[in-house]
Amino acid sequence: MFDITKMVIHTMHVSDLDEIRENLTENFDNFWSYEIFKEELVNNNSSYLVARYNDEIVCYGGIKIVLDVADVMNIVTKKDKRNMGFAKFILNELINIAKEERCNSITLEVNENNKPAIHLYEQFDFKQVGLRKNYYDGIDNAILMTLKL
Ligand SMILES: CC(C)(COP(=O)(O)OP(=O)(O)OC[C@H]1O[C@@H](n2cnc3c(N)ncnc32)[C@H](O)[C@@H]1OP(=O)(O)O)[C@@H](O)C(=O)NCCC(=O)NCCS
User: For the chain, what is the total number of helices (H) and then of strands (E)?
Assistant: First the structure.
């Protein structure tokens, strides 16, 4: 766990992305290119948050809302800051945003081999509702999960 007094969560802007741009892949396992991420951040339907610990960006995540459904687009914790509770914090805030926007559910896809992420989502009561075969690079299956709000 972390010292909550040193933690700040705020909307993620392009300037935040620029701050971590250089080491996005090495430090965060980011799966989007900078350009795609930037487009996501400025999309009107998107809400992205960033968590700072001692002013350092340690985690970010976002949802995209279409009608009454929110989709978790990504949630990533800096590699050397994992298993400290940051993703739980961000996900909790993203769920609150979806509730405030009167969404009825939140959906997401996760690689069936991504145990840390599946564990995270199950903690928030996301339920498995489907499977997309060979979704990731034609190899790994994606589990579809939904949280009813
Ligand atoms: C998935 C991910 C976001 C979790 O971030 P995190 O900040 O380490 O997660 P938290 O510390 O908030 O932990 C959340 C829960 O998952 C558990 N967890 C974290 N890492 C774990 C691991 N390697 N194995 C099993 N459980 C794990 C934690 O123990 C915690 O559960 P608990 O309260 O029962 O202890 C992080 O591993 C990550 O960035 N992965 C790469 C990107 C990714 O795959 N994102 C998800 C797909 S969009």
Answer: 5, 7
- Residue pLDDT, tens place only, 26-37: 999 877 889 999
Binding pocket residue ranges, ligand 1, CB within 6 Å: 29, 59, 74-77, 82-88, 110, 114-117, 119-120, 123
Identify the pLDDT of residue 19. Answer: 96
**Hey, where are the domains in the chain?**
4-148
First to last CA, the chain: 27
Q: Using the atom order of ligand 1, give the atom closest to the CA of residue 90.
A: 12
Query: Nearest Cα to 89, choosing from 41, 53, 114?
Result: 53
Ligand 1 center to 96 CA (angstroms): 19
Q: Which two tokens stand for residue 78?
A: 């800096």
Q: What is the per-residue pLDDT across 106-146, written as a single tens digit (0 to 9) for each?
A: 999 999 999 999 999 999 999 999 999 999 989 999 999 99
> What CATH class has 4-148?
alpha beta
47 within 8 A of 66, measured Cβ to Cβ: no
